[in-house]
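[#protein-structures] MJ: dropping DUF1292 domain-containing protein here for a structure pass
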Amino acid sequence: MEPIEEGEIFTITDEDGEEQEVEVLGVINVDGTQYAAVSFVEDIQEENEEIDVFFLKVDTDGEFSAIESEDEFNKVSAAFTEVMED
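AK: finished. structure tokens for DUF1292 domain-containing protein:
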């Protein structure tokens, strides 16, 4: 598996079965698990608009999956916030 890197663009399928392109904004390891902060490419390309950032878990095969619990989300969110503040 090649490492996920900031700036990479991937296509994911949302809960409605529609494909969306997302760009990796950052990658971090938390408790031995890799997570990626991503946003929709379309939102990033539009100027003067706030973008939604969400976190995905990266499994050992390099596949993305949703964060499954609020505790896990809070831990990952705090880790990304800490890195961004440094």
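MJ: nice. The chain has a mean pLDDT of 88.
AK: one more thing. The radius of gyration is 13 Å.
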